[in-house]
Specification:
Layout (H helix, E strand, L loop, with lengths): L1 H6 L12 H5 L6 H33 L17 H19 L4 H19 L7 H21 L5 H24 L15 H23 L2 H7 L8 H18 L5 H5 L3 H24 L1
Amino acid sequence: MLLLQQLRVKEWIKNGFIFLPMFFAGMMKDLHLVQLMALGFGAFCFAASSIYCINDLVDVNFDKEHPIKKYRPYPSGKISTNQLVSLSAICMVIAAVLLFFLPNEAKWVLVAYIVLQLAYSFALKHVAVVDCVTIALGFVFRILFGGLILGSPGSSWIILVTFLLSLYLAFAKRRCELALLTTNQTRRSLQHYSLTFLDTALAATCAVTIVAYIMYTHDPEVITRIRFPYFYLSSGFVIVGMLRHLQQTIQKGQTESPTDYLFKDPVLIANILLWMAFNFYVLYGRNVLM
């Protein structure tokens, strides 16, 4: 259990973004591609866990003062520095082995992701706004990684919506961190944020994300490809989900960890499941039922 906590296995759900290009391309029935994507998912998960270990090593003094992060295995002293370094190295080796079976283009994307995350751990996390943009770019790399496994960089709409949604979630995380702040011993970038700015940034990115998704559902190329003129109806789930998350973030400050919150809010869980079911019907189910 301690090992799973240090690897942050719950955070692996974020790497599910690599499946989006395949899902929206209607290629989930191709078992060979599904196997390749599973290998890619594993490679990304272990690479990310390796970076989490490095990040914990760098942030240990700050995490010890954090009301939530101080209970993580390393800041709490349950795992030693040597164990943490060894665990990080093992995860990176496993990621490299899995990466061997994937297309070369995808390999370079994961390498770029690792470099970006190392830059974030040692420097970029301390620069306000840049820290959130870096987090969002990490999700864009996931989309590109998944697309290149399929042989295509992926839809520009999926990349745009992913970046905007991830930027929104990054601002939400910073807002909750700032609201929980009880000591000056914290990440430097928070000193340059205010609740007023973050509330404004959240509202703006929330609105732009919704608009971008609506434009995606109205794109003639998308409608022609999926042959379903009512695809725009899926925008309703996105609007409800975004506004629900925004409400919980601003009024209750419950979304510092988006993955933890995802498993706690029944409204958001139901909304995401309905969105997935609708899109699955549009992309796959109609061919079975017709």
